[in-house]
Every structure is written in structure tokens, then in C-alpha cells.
Specification:
262 residues, mainly beta, four-stranded antiparallel beta sheet, elongated
Length: 262
């Protein structure tokens, strides 16, 4: 509140006393003008002219996607209201026409806890589709094709530890590449550089970011039989594989089968 202070000074002359006296009076007047403050002496906070209108003003404004709904600041919109994303909608689905709608099992979107697009959860069970059928490129019935396999970045490696490359039971790893259509095509065969009969090369495989680890659980080492070994390969720019390291069983013993699968 704006306060006006009036100071009244009254002079008077006292006859016969030879002096001038005065009377000082302080008068306070309160003016309730536009700058008025509270009795506590604190100034009132000015109104925020830019504050977001309430989500009940029946106007589509600020970030709303429809009248008084959506946009993250107002409640989610009912069906048939305009939307930009699923979170704008009460039913959690903003359809391709950018309108809120109730999810269905034929809306072409994975929603309502579906396991896939329009299947699983409250919808019919999803169908498993076989995209490729694999068999050994040499079709040897005794090579235990796919004893182990690994997949990473469109590359599939398949172990065949009983394959005759070049000896009976030496083992091999077959490499497949996935093309743009989703089909897998045979690329090449990887064999150990010092193969021996019954090494079991390919009994275990692991692949990640161009590094391939191949187990040969029956390989002999340091005078012991079937102690096992791991061979590491790195993928090259021409998509070939270079043998870069051998991991030998640190505690070799007979029939240890290092890296054998359980």
C-alpha cells in the first residue's frame, strides 16, 4: 500500500514569555492506490500474464493437441481427438491419421501388451514363420551339423565338430550371411590351421562384433589327449577370417575336454 506522510508544523507565539514555541504532529494517511501493499509491508506479487491457461478453457492452445487435452500438460484425449503420439491418448494409441483410437488386433501396431504386431497378449497367438532352412553345404550325415551356432550382425556361424575337414572328425565351422531379403546364404568354411583327426573343432562357437571363438574340445595338447583348445578369429575387410590366437588349457590332462559343451 502507498503511504503518504503529512508533517504538520504549528507555530505559536506565547505573549509575554519572549519565546517562540512549536508543536510537531505526525499524521499518517493510507492511500489504497494501485501500489497498495499488505499490512505486513510486503509487496504483492504481480500477476503472470504469460501463465498457461487452465486445461478447462475450451480453447485449443499452447501444447494441447486438441481442445483441453494432450500435449503432456493437459489430460490425455478421448477417442477421435487429435493427437501427435500415443501418450496424447487416453487409450494409449494415436492412429496413422493422428486421431486417438482404441487399440484393436487389426490396427497394424504393437500395443495393448501384444507380443507382436496384432498378435499375442489379448490377440490371437503369433505365428512362427520359418525364414530359412539350413543344412550342411557338404551334406555329410555324420558331421553333427549345428552342434552349436551363433549369430551377430547378419552373420551366422554353425559348428560341425565331426566334419571331415580334412580328416575324419577334424571339425569345421560354416559361415552364412543374411541378405536384404532376410535369406541366409552360405559364405565359407573355416577349418583349423593344424587340423588332426577327431579334434572336434566347432563343438562350441561364439561371435560378437567380428570376433569368432571356436572350441575344439578333443584337440590334443602337450602330450595329453583330448585336452581341448579355443581358437580365435578376426573378421577381415574382405569378409574372410584370420586366425589370431589359440587359447590352450592351462592345466592339461587326459580327456579334460576344454570348452566342451555341457
Amino acid at each position: 500500500m502507498k503511504r503518504c506522510f503529512v508533517l504538520a508544523l504549528a507555530f505559536f507565539f506565547v505573549s509575554g514569555c519572549g519565546r517562540i514555541g512549536y508543536d510537531l504532529t505526525l499524521i499518517t494517511e493510507v492511500d489504497g492506490g494501485p501500489d497498495a501493499s499488505s499490512d505486513s509491508g510486503e509487496l504483492d506479487a504481480p500477476a503472470d500474464a504469460n501463465s498457461n491457461p487452465a486445461c478447462e478453457d475450451t480453447i485449443k492452445n499452447f501444447s494441447e493437441t486438441d481442445v483441453d487435452c494432450g500435449g503432456g500438460e493437459c489430460p490425455a484425449c478421448a477417442d477421435d481427438a487429435a493427437c501427435v503420439q500415443n501418450s496424447d491418448c487416453l487409450n494409449g494409441y494415436c492412429n496413422p491419421s493422428l486421431l486417438c483410437a482404441s487399440p484393436t488386433c487389426s490396427d497394424g501396431a504393437q500395443n495393448q501388451n501384444e507380443a507382436g504386431v496384432d498378435c499375442g497378449g489379448p490377440c490371437p497367438a503369433c505365428q512362427v514363420q520359418s525364414l530359412s532352412f539350413f543344412q550342411s553345404p557338404v551334406a555329410n550325415s555324420s558331421e553333427t551339423f549345428a552342434y552349436d551356432f551363433a549369430f551377430d550382425n547378419d552373420t551366422l556361424v554353425v559348428g560341425a565338430p565331426a566334419a571331415a575337414w580334412p580328416y575324419a572328425g577334424s571339425g569345421a565351422v560354416y559361415v552364412y550371411r543374411r541378405d536384404q531379403s532376410g535369406a541366409f546364404n552360405f559364405d565359407r568354411t573355416i577349418t583349423y590351421s593344424a587340423s588332426a583327426p577327431n579334434d572336434g573343432f566347432g563343438n562350441a562357437v561364439a561371435l560378437e562384433n567380428g570376433t569368432l571363438v571356436v572350441g575344439a574340445s578333443a584337440m590334443d595338447d602337450n602330450g595329453f589327449t583330448d585336452t581341448g583348445r579355443a581358437v580365435i578369429y578376426e573378421e577381415q575387410p574382405d569378409l574372410s577370417w584370420k586366425e589370431v590366437a589359440n587359447l590352450i588349457n592351462p592345466n592339461p590332462m587326459y580327456d579334460y575336454a576344454f570348452l566342451a559343451q555341457e
